[in-house]
Design a protein that fits this description.
By secondary structure, the chain is α/β, with parallel strands linked by helices. About 45% of the residues lie in helices and about 15% in strands. The protein folds into two domains: about 15-130 and about 320-360, ATPase, nucleotide binding domain (Nucleotidyltransferase, domain 5, 2-Layer Sandwich); about 140-315, 2-Layer Sandwich (Nucleotidyltransferase, domain 5). The chain is built from twelve helices and ten strands. About 50% of the residues are buried. It binds 5'-O-[(R)-(carboxyoxy)(hydroxy)phosphoryl]adenosine and zinc ion (ZN).
C-alpha cells in the first residue's frame, strides 16, 4: 500500500527525515532540498562492540531499538520542525545487518503511516554514492570508490538508481581488512585509525606483503590474502621472541600492511579510470572517495596523486558524511522524491541489494557484491 502523498504542501523546498540503522550507527537527520542539513545526529555503538573486535549483529539490532525513537525526537527538535513540515520519510532498507535494517524500516513505516507521509526506501550504498551531491554541485556521471567496513566497490555513478559497477571485493571489505589486521596486531577496534596511527612511525618496506590481484584485468578487489600474510609474519616474529611483538614490529607490520593495501587499491582503481576514460570521455573527470576508510591520509594522498596524473579531480564528502549517517539517506530521499520514487508500506528489508543489478556476481563476494 502506498502512503498517500500529501498534495497541499505549503513548504518548499522539500524537507526529508532520513533514518540509518544498517550497521553499528543509529543515525537520524533532517535535510532540506536546498542542501541545508537542519540536523544530523549519529549515535555510534562502538563501545558496545569493542570487546568483540567487530560488530555483533544481535547487539547492534537491540541497540538501534533502544536509541532510534529518542534520536528521531532529538533530530526534529534540533531542526525545529514538526512532522507536519516534512515532505517524506527516507530510510535505509538494505543492504546491511538485517535486524538493524528492520528496526529502522519499521520505525519509518510507523511515522509514514501515522503522519500520512510518503515512504522512500533507500539503498545504503546509494546513500554513500550520492552524499557528495549534498555538499557540492556535481553532475552525473562520476567515478566513485566506496571503501568502508562493509564494502569496497568501484562504480560509475550515472544517475539516481543508475550505476555501472566496475569492481567489488571478492572477499573482505577494505575496512574489514584494517579491523582484522588490527586484531592480529593486538591493536584497538576500529582497526583503521589504530593502524594508521601505528604506521606513522613504521618502516613500510620491512615486510614484503602481497598486493592481491595486482596486474590482473578489471577492478575487483581482494584483501584476505594480505591479512593472512600479516598473521603469518606475526606468528614467525612471535615464535622467535617468546610470543610477543615489539612496538617496532607492530609499527613496521602496520606500515607495511597499509602500503600493500593502498598499492592494491590503486592498481584496481587505475583500471577503472581507464575504463571510464574510454566510455565516458565526454563527461567531467571527477573521482569521489567515500566510506570510513576514506579517512585514511595515506590512501587519500596516493589517490590524489593518481587522480592528478590521470586528469581527475578528487573529491570526498566531509568526514561526518563519509561514515554512516542519516543525512546521506535523507539526501537520497530528496533525489528520489524529485523522481517520484516512493515505496509502499509493505516494502521489505533486503540484506542484498546491488546498485548495479547487471553486474556479474563476484565469486566469493556474498552479500557484499
Ligand atoms: O563507513 P564506516 O563508518 O562504516 C561502514 O559502513 O562500514 O566505515 C568503518 C570502517 C571501519 O572498518 C574502520 O576501521 C575504517 O572504516 N576506518 C579506517 C580509518 N578510519 C575508519 N580505515 C583506515 N584508516 C582510517 N583512518
Ligand atoms: Zn556505510
Amino acid at each position: 500500500m502506498l502512503a498517500k502523498i500529501k498534495k497541499n504542501k505549503a513548504y518548499a523546498p522539500l524537507l526529508v527525515l532520513g533514518i540509518e540503522s544498517s550497521c553499528d550507527e543509529t543515525a537520524v537527520a533532517i535535510i532540506s532540498e536546498d542542501k541545508t542539513i537542519l540536523s544530523n545526529i549519529i549515535f555510534t555503538q562502538l563501545e558496545e562492540h569493542k570487546p568483540f573486535g567487530g560488530v555483533v549483529p544481535e547487539i547492534a539490532a537491540r541497540s538501534h531499538i533502544d536509541h532510534l525513537n529518542g534520536l528521531v525526537r532529538k533530530a526534529m527538535g534540533q531542526a525545529k520542525v514538526d512532522f507536519d513540515n516534512l515532505s517524506a520519510i527516507a530510510v535505509t532498507s538494505g543492504p546491511g545487518l538485517i535486524g538493524g535494517v528492520m528496526v529502522g524500516l519499521m520505525t519509518a513505516k510507523a511515522i509514514a503511516f501515522v503522519r500520512n507521509l510518503p515512504l522512500i526506501s533507500v539503498n545504503h550504498l546509494e546513500g554513500h554514492a550520492l552524499s557528495i551531491r549534498l555538499t557540492e554541485d556535481i553532475n552525473f556521471p562520476y567515478l566513485l570508490l566506496l571503501v568502508s567496513g562493509g564494502h569496497c566497490q568501484l562504480l560509475v555513478v550515472k544517475g539516481v538508481g543508475q550505476y555501472e559497477r566496475l569492481g567489488t571485493t571478492i572477499d573482505d571489505a577494505a575496512g574489514e581488512a584494517f579491523d582484522k589486521t588490527a586484531k592480529i596486531l593486538g591493536l584497538d577496534y576500529p582497526g583503521g585509525p589504530a593502524i594508521e596511527k601505528a604506521a606513522l612511525n613504521g618502516d613500510a618496506h620491512r615486510f614484503k606483503f602481497p598486493r592481491p590481484l595486482k596486474g590482473k584485468p578489471g577492478s575487483n578487489f581482494s584483501f584476505s590474502g594480505l591479512k593472512t600474510a600479516v598473521l603469518r609474519e606475526r606468528d614467525k616474529l612471535c615464535d622467535g621472541q617468546g610470543g610477543k611483538l615489539s612496538n617496532k614490529d607492530i609499527r613496521d607490520l602496520a606500515a607495511s600492511f597499509q602500503m600493500a593495501l593502498t598499492d592494491a587499491i590503486l592498481d584496481r582503481v587505475k583500471n577503472g579510470i581507464e575504463h571510464y576514460l574510454k566510455n565516458y570521455s565526454l563527461h567531467d573527470h571527477i573521482f569521489v572517495v567515500a566510506g570510513g576508510v576514506a579517512a585514511n591520509s595515506h590512501i587519500k594522498e596516493k589517490l590524489s596523486s593518481l587522480c592528478n596524473e590521470c586528469g581527475f579531480e578528487l573529491k570526498a564528502p566531509p568526514m561526518k558524511l563519509c561514515t554512516d549517517n542519516g543525512a546521506m539517506i535523507g539526501w537520497v530521499g530528496i533525489e528520489k522524491y524529485r523522481k517520484q520514487q516512493f515505496s509502499g508500506l509493505d516494502s521489505g528489508a533486503v540484506a542484498r541489494w546491488p546498485l548495479d543489478p547487471n553486474a556479474a556476481p563476484a565469486i566469493g563476494a556474498g552479500v557484499k557484491a
